[in-house]
Amino acid sequence: MAHTETGPAPKADPAPAPDWLRTNRANWDARVPVHAASELYDLAGFRAGRSTLRALDLDEVGDVTGRRLLHLQCHMGQDTLSWARRGAHVTGLDFSAPAIRTARALAEDTGLADRARFVVSDVYAAPQALDGQRFDIVVTGVGALVWLPDLPRWAQIVVSLLADGGFLHLAEFHPFTDVLDEDGSTVAYDYFGDAQGARYDSPYTYTDGPPLAEPVHVEWQHSLGEVITSLAAAGLRIEFLHEYPTTLFRRFPVLEGSADGTGGGAFPPGAPQIPLMYSLRARRTP
Length: 286
Ligand SMILES: C[S@@+](CC[C@H](N)C(=O)[O-])C[C@H]1O[C@@H](n2cnc3c(N)ncnc32)[C@H](O)[C@@H]1O
Fold this sequence. Notes:
The chain has 286 residues and is of the alpha/beta class. The chain has helices at 19-36, 43-47, 55-61, 78-85, 97-109, 126-129, 151-161, 224-233, and strands at 68-72, 89-94, 116-120, 135-141, 162-173, 198-201, 216-219, 237-244, 246-247, 265-266, 277-283. It is globular, with a radius of gyration of 20 Å. S-adenosylmethionine binds at residues 24, 28, 73-75, 78-79, 94-96, 99, 122-123, 142-144, 147.
């Protein structure tokens, strides 16, 4: 509405959420009750003290005692609260209100509410949702980046959330795995995604449980080069990039359980090994 002669125009309504955001939020809202009841997420075990952090997170993030840690796309907050159990003051952010409600309830149930804050927000609106607060450590990944259409903008958001000297730790499924067919034996798909993303209609989520009420979602494929270049262009200094021949779940039937504690699997010994996950640390230098 235009500015009028009699005074300032009424505040405009916020711009409507883009279609991908509404579609994906509805899909994730529908996943939450299914995940909360699933064996994979094992909320009862978490309440009883189980940590969901992986060996690589613990090794690469290091001591978090007293640090301000932000977990982007925190889902139901188990990783976030696992960091709180290790002494961090944590904030978890996710755009799904049911996920954040579950995370807050878990924080209460586990006695961690005094050092855990959970915020409902789109990643791209995080600086406003967090009132400009800055963090020593930002963690994210494990199925996070495929939901984001614009990595250069994501990287700029991450920089704006980091205190000087603070770092991002990202642990993700390796985008190279997306080129393989469902058996994991043949290159079947493009490595390079397109800017429109890909729309899927998948009745089931990745846990056990009933079909989803909102099955449609949009995902974006981001190459490793795109991730690194986005972070470097935003001004972060990449301290390491590790690639792992192991992953957290049995993505392909050919994978065998890995003995190194990373969980899900690896190609059998003697078979050609490809990267299944990667992790990196990127620091905001003063
Ligand atoms: C596969 S889960 C990540 C799991 C997470 N690593 C964990 O610790 O459980 C992806 C999460 O991203 C969230 N998400 C997807 N797009 C988002 C966006 N634009 N802004 C904020 N959260 C988003 C979903 O609600 C979901 O909780």
